[in-house]
Amino acid sequence: MAEKKFSERKLILFTVGLLIVAGLIRLVNYKVGLVFFYLSFIPFVWHRVRFYLRNKTNLSSVDKYRKITLIVMLATIVMNIIGLQDIEFFLLFILAIDYLIIVNSKNTTVVNDK
Predict the structure, then answer these.
(1) Any residues with CB less than 8 A from the CB of 22 and at least 6 apart, and which?
(2) In sequence order, what are the residues at sequence separation of 6 or more whose Cβ sits closer than 8 angstroms to the Cβ of residue 109?
(3) Residue 72, number of CB atoms within 10 A of its CB
(4) Is 85 within 8 Å of 49 (Cβ atoms)?
(5) How many other CB atoms are there within 10 angstroms of residue 110's CB atom?
(6) Which of 45, 67, 68 is nearest to 55 (CA)?
(7) Largest alpha-carbon pair distance within the chain?
(8) Which long-range contacts (CB under 8 A, 24 or more apart) does 68-72 make?
């Protein structure tokens, strides 16, 4: 079976596209747009969690930093949904930090997804 090549940059750009659509929906109906805002993070979070579950031992230092950003992102989403904080912009900031980690790393242009 051939290995699948997966671009992390394209995944983040796809997530940003979903966030733009959620923002446009939010202009029309705030509550529905807020739900779509949180749903737009599902592809990104699902791929990262799946990546870390499959590659527990052989992680590079870049993956360790990205794991920290994923944990912060998940904690922020849970706290926003529970109602302990109301900061949606922080999620965008964490997504931007993750994108910068990818861009500045030399060896993570394409990740093998088994």
Answers:
(1) 33, 36, 37, 39, 40
(2) 7, 9
(3) 16
(4) no
(5) 11
(6) 67
(7) 46
(8) 69/94, 69/97, 69/98, 69/101, 70/45, 70/98
* pLDDT one-digit tens code per residue, 2-58: 456 678 888 888 999 999 999 999 999 999 999 999 999 999 999 999 989 988 888
CA–CA distances in Å: residue 34 to residues 50, 66, 70, 114: 25, 25, 20, 33
- Residues 51-91: tens digit of each pLDDT: 899 888 888 888 889 999 999 999 999 998 888 888 888 98
**What contacts 61, CB < 8 A, 6 or more positions away?**
none
Q: Report residue 90 as tokens.
A: 């922080």
Q: Note the pTM of the prediction, 2 decimals.
A: 0.79
Domain definitions of the chain by residue range: 7-107
Q: Which amino acid is at 42?
A: I
Q: Is the pLDDT of residue 109 over 60?
A: no
